Amino acid sequence: MFIYEKDYIMRMIYGITQMLAVILFGKKLNSEEVFIALGDEFRGSNDLLLEMVDKGEINAAEDRLFDIIETSGMAKDALGLLILQFYDHVNSKDDEFLARAEFDREEILPGLKDAMSRIGLDVSEYTNI
Hints:
The protein is mostly helical and 129 residues long. Helices cover 72% and strands 0% of the residues.
């Protein structure tokens, strides 16, 4: 795949995550609003997931995200923002970083759709690129 095609996919995923945050939850990602929505109880989960991604432990972080979805009891809106923030953060990594972490950018949208469906939201109409 050519570099400009990968850059296009990266920009499209970024746009999708930002759009979904505003449409579904009325919030912008990477803003104080997300941290407020998560509350003190779940802010640590968000920080842990992002830290794991930064360390290149993306697959383990994604598994942890799904554990949080299934067991946390977190409100649907907070879970949705957590999911969007997670995949937006993964998408912000360059292709070399993702390759070293044994994660492919093309895994982001299917993971996002799966995670959102687990909280009862079908976002497939928004995620076709």
